[in-house]
Amino acid sequence: MKNSKPQASKIQTLLLRWFRANARDLPWRRNRTPYAVWVSEIMLQQTQVATVIDYFNRFMKRFPTVEKLARAKQDSVLKLWEGLGYYSRGRNLHKAAKIIVADYGGKLPDTLEELQKIPGIGRYSAGAIASIAFNRPAPILDGNVIRVLCRIFRLKGNPKETATKNKLWQLADMLVHTKHPGDFNEAMMELGALVCTPSNPSCSSCPLNKVCAAFKHNEQDSLPVRQKKTRLPHYTIVVGIVYKDNKILIDKRRQNALLGGLWEFPGGKKRKDESFKTAVAREVKEETGITIEVGKRLCIVKHTYSHFKITLHAYVCEYKNGAAKPLACDAVKWITPKNLKKYPFPGANVKIIRQLMNAV
Known about the structure:
Layout lengths: L3 H19 L4 H4 L3 H11 L4 H14 L3 H6 L2 H8 L6 H16 L8 H4 L7 H12 L8 H10 L9 H14 L5 H14 L18 H4 L17 E11 L2 E6 L10 E2 L2 E3 L6 H13 L2 E14 L4 E13 L9 E5 L11 H13 L1
Parallel strand pairs: 1-6
Antiparallel strand pairs: 1-2, 1-4, 2-3, 2-7, 5-6
Helix pairs in contact: 1-12, 3-4, 3-9, 9-12, 10-12
């Protein structure tokens, strides 16, 4: 890039001045401990700030230190995470807390290299934590920053492609402020969130509009280059709400599976050649080893995950025989209906529980 140092200096000056006047008052900015920065950065991955605020406040109240998080049960951590999505973040946060206490004396490491050894911390999160919590000049690259960089430098490549991603990392590294790296990185993210938005960016009020190549060429609405959206696959799922002696059977999803560590009603995908009730009986048998009598359908739930959609058919069932065992799951439990609220469930199951409570 021609005259890169003078332009980088100008971008830094304009952006930091804007950020200090316009930064939002967010809970993780009020007490910038490494622990608070780490928790917030993990929660903010692929999740909007407005959604994260309440989750962050509840999480920090329940687990104010890494030691308390390390001592917690996974169910307690995932219950607080319930509804935030991308549950591997919660599992990794809990796992990482144990490692930080055991191997790092309860202190989060302060270098990019060591941070990336911690479960759930990749290159972006390491840069954010190192710069914001420890004032190290480390670059970051999240969705907001990618959008800002693609527009400022008029990058025409797809950010998902390796060559373009490498170029973006080079630009982020060139731009990061050496004395105020945390403020600068937050400013880049803030600009993308508030001004340089995906659609209808507020270019007239942008502090960088005089140095933005996309704005100069009126290409801000076409950058960054977007991938064509693919249609999400759809699955028909059946589950059994199995009663035995006024208790309901739930099982725990395997740790390495999608939504791992969460509890659910036993069930799975319906085959094309079977009825809904046959599918429920088969899935419950395969998952827990018991036989059941399938009764009436309680509800139909539609739910969208990041990579697929489901239509879930929930049936009220009665236990017939067999001992419930974790055949295709990590654990099984018989619990009273009122105790369902104590366990972390996926979003689709939460909708079923609401229907179940309303029907009682």
